[in-house]
């Protein structure tokens, strides 16, 4: 295993903060400070300049970073080759998922993957698409699953799943008995939107524009940071919204919400798998990628 102090050092550099590094490593801040102090005592020099709340690497810190990255890469290579030799995928796998996927899709898959690979330690981080893309780019996550467009350099994208965005309304709403609705009717009703940076919001606005409807015509009464909150607000009669069919599925089945598709456009989008092109992938990461694209994963979601 990579020396604990080196791993802590790399995380502090990545997060640019002792407190954020502690959170990422599931440690206390004093524990992180102690590990850095041990390194500084061992090498007999300061690794970070601490000015106010900002930290920057010293010249010695930059030198250690160069070799620590090489050590980390060699450790990953060693673990991968050992796993290939023994035929067992193991180690920690950091997965990120944008909100809709993280709440309504990936939980159904992780249990099965864990059964197939019991020695892999899974960690799931849920955030909006921009957050997950950023963390894939800075290599703090191994694999991401996102619902919005990805534009960052050095990130590879593969299709995971097709999704359809649907209009949800309360079960007693005037539109509830319909199957389809015109996008140009949306300005008649209070509208509940996801927050900026949300993949669902980005895709919704793209499809509205394609249909010729200006988003400025929406009567947006609130912006909410989760699909669960939006469903609760719509169910309470506060307004209507557009969410993934996967997220609407359970409430529609229970008769608490009604869903409609749009006459002008299918509002179909892609859920994508993303990963850093240059980040070394362990066997565990490769096995998870293969699993996501397997018939087994698809059948689990269709049930």
Structure description:
The chain folds into two domains: 4-85, Arc Repressor Mutant, subunit A (Orthogonal Bundle); 99-303, D-Maltodextrin-Binding Protein, domain 2 (3-Layer(aba) Sandwich), CATH 3.40.190. The chain is built from twelve helices and twelve strands. It has helices at 4-15, 18-25, 29-43, 59-86, 99-104, 107-116, 129-137, 199-211, 227-235, 245-253, 283-292, 295-302; strands at residues 48-51, 54-57, 91-98, 120-127, 143-146, 155-170, 180-181, 190-194, 219-224, 241-244, 257-262, 268-276. The strands form three sheets. Strands 3, 4, 5, 6, 7, 10, 11 and 12 form an eight-stranded mixed β-sheet that branches. Strands 1-2 form a two-stranded antiparallel ribbon. The protein has a two-stranded parallel sheet with strand order 8-9. A hairpin with a 2-residue loop joins strand 1 (48-51) and strand 2 (54-57). Helix 1 packs across helix 3, helix 1 packs across helix 4 (59-86) and helix 2 (18-25) crosses helix 3. The longest helix is centred in the first third of the chain and has 28 residues, at 59-86. The radius of gyration is 23 Å and the shape is elongated.
In short:
This protein is α/β, with parallel strands linked by helices and 303 residues long. Helices cover 45% and strands 25% of the residues.
